[in-house]
Write a structure and sequence with these properties.
mainly alpha; Arc Repressor Mutant, subunit A; three-stranded mixed sheet; 14 helices; elongated
């Protein structure tokens, strides 16, 4: 593998690293990947040929780690594969190419957008100073602009997005994108939407703990169990009172499952039962119907009257809930 860059004499030479590396790339890479980049950047000044196995030995890393590191930097465009080696690309030039978009004309619509962008520019300056100590990478500007267009967040939501990720020590692009997607799927656009979203999340977490306690589950709920509770509380908008009815109805079951609870609660939702009174009345009617059915079957069995065809005794649940 051959590495190429400008030649310099070894004596008194230095390996220069542009600041864009620290603001743009270092947070995305593992320590081993950074180690590989710095060393091949150093070697590239002298056009040295080096094998991956030799690189692994020199850096005390495994062969697969070296390969993963090279692939990682290649996918980011930091290095480019060429024949049997790589070229170390200019990070400043990469950043400039991402940002530069020629604009030959300015329309009335552009002027209106520029007025709107003044507010956003102030917001981005706030994000830069508050979360990046005033040295935010230029590529973040393009990302923020893209998220404004894609998710239609207002400025307060965008600021809350960065604050949320920063408070969790996860202010890197992929995580911010995941959180933004989650908020967008919950129809968050304004700060009022976000407050409602937070309230729903808080309610869901309380119900999760309550269900966990009532079922005697000592371990944390897994993602599938949480998904069921999210459906009941957010999609169906059922409070804990209604979910508790399903839990109480299931006490006679030896091995209660979330799948069983979901079938019961989903049945209530499909029947458009919205309150605890609706559900209790429904259960009373079901119980009375089951009682009549048993009485009828008893009479048929004892021969108290002439047997005739009798159908359409609806069971409300396939699992014979009663």
């Amino acid at each position: 593998m051959k590495l190429e860059q400008n030649d310099e004499a070894l004596l008194f030479s230095t390996t220069k690293i542009p600041d864009i590396f620290f603001s743009e790339y270092i947070s995305q890479a593992s320590g081993d990947f950074i180690k590989v980049y710095l060393y091949i950047l150093f070697l590239s000044k002298y056009g040295k040929d080096i094998k991956v196995n030799d690189l692994a030995k020199k850096l005390s890393l495994t062969f697969p780690v070296i390969q993963e590191a090279l692939k990682f930097w290649e996918e980011l465009g930091v290095i480019t594969k060429k024949g049997t080696g790589f070229i170390i690309n200019n990070l400043q030039e990469i950043a400039l190419n991402k940002l530069y978009k020629p604009n030959m004309t300015i329309s009335a619509e552009d002027i209106e957008k520029n007025e709107k962008n003044k507010t956003r520019s102030k917001l981005i300056e706030t994000i830069n100073n508050q979360f990046f100590q005033g040295i935010m990478s230029p590529s973040w500007y393009a990302d923020i602009d893209l998220w404004f267009k894609k998710y239609e967040f207002d400025e307060q939501v965008m600021l809350a997005l960065f604050n949320y990720c920063f408070s969790r020590s996860a202010l890197h692009r992929n995580y911010v994108q995941v959180v933004a997607e989650a908020w967008s799927k919950s129809n968050v656009k304004t700060f009022s939407d976000l407050e409602i979203y937070y309230q729903k999340q808080e309610t869901t977490q309380k119900i999760e703990k309550a269900v966990q306690k009532k079922l005697g589950i000592l371990r944390p709920l897994n993602e599938y169990e949480k998904a069921y509770i999210h459906k009941w509380t957010v999609d169906y908008e059922y409070p804990l009172d209604i979910i508790e009815i399903a839990l109480k109805k299931s006490t006679s079951k030896a091995n209660i499952t979330f799948d069983y609870l979901d079938k019961v609660i989903t049945d209530w939702h499909d029947r458009e039962l919205k309150t605890t009174d609706d559900i209790q009345n429904h259960l009373i009617a079901f119980k009375a119907q089951e009682k009549k059915k048993k009485e009828f079957q008893k009479k048929v069995k004892s021969g108290d009257f002439e047997q005739r065809s009798y159908t359409n005794f609806d069971n409300l649940y396939a699992n014979n809930q009663g």
